[in-house]
């Protein structure tokens, strides 16, 4: 019961801290949305990325650095304490949220992989001076310029865009 209680507490805390900090991040974005219209697209993108990733990162850090060590040090191993229904529901909601996030992430990865493979089949490699990643020119109905990949990034440029660029 000691380990089950610890896991349920960690999951419930993860969900709760993530939800609270997400509310704060949403409020911060509401306050900054109007002034942010004057900022560059890159600055807005960085801010939105930070507001999106900070809540789960902070929740993970809190659980890993504070809750788990405190639980291991201060919770008696032999106890009659059981997992309450409320704690179990919070832990279950946390598991569902984590599962959905992983499922969406895997789906996005698969879709991106299929898209990149399709683009590679119809693309021609090009050499761009000073570019450390592979680049490809492709025929596409939209003016696409895309970097695809985190560990092995590749640059895809639609032919009409590439032809309109100066060296």
Short structural summary:
With 167 residues, the chain is of the alpha+beta class. Helices cover 67% and strands 10% of the residues.
How do the strands and helices of this protein lay out in sequence?
Blueprint: H1 2-36, H2 41-74, H3 85-121, E1 123-126, E2 135-138, E3 145-148, E4 154-158, H4 159-164
Parallel strand pairs: 2-4
Antiparallel strand pairs: 1-2, 3-4
Helix pairs in contact: 1-2, 1-3
Task: Characterize the structure shown.
With 167 residues, the chain is an alpha+beta fold. Helix content is 67%, strand content 10%. Strands 1-2-4-3 form a 4-stranded mixed sheet. Strand 3 and strand 4 (154-158) form a beta hairpin. The longest helix is centred in the middle third of the chain and has 37 residues, at 85-121. 10% of the residues are buried. The model has no long low-confidence stretch (mean pLDDT 92).
Structural class designation: alpha+beta
- Rg: 23 Å
**Main pleated-sheet profile:** 4 strands, mixed
Low-confidence stretches: none
Helix content: 55-70%
The helix-strand sequence is HHHEEEEH
Output the strand order for the largest sheet: 1-2-4-3
The dominant shape is elongated
Distance between the termini: 67 Å
How much of the polypeptide forms β-strand, as a percent range? 5-15%
Specify the oligomeric state.
Answer: single chain
Rounded mean pLDDT score: 92
Total helical elements:
4
Task: Give descriptors for this structure.
167 residues; four-stranded mixed β-sheet
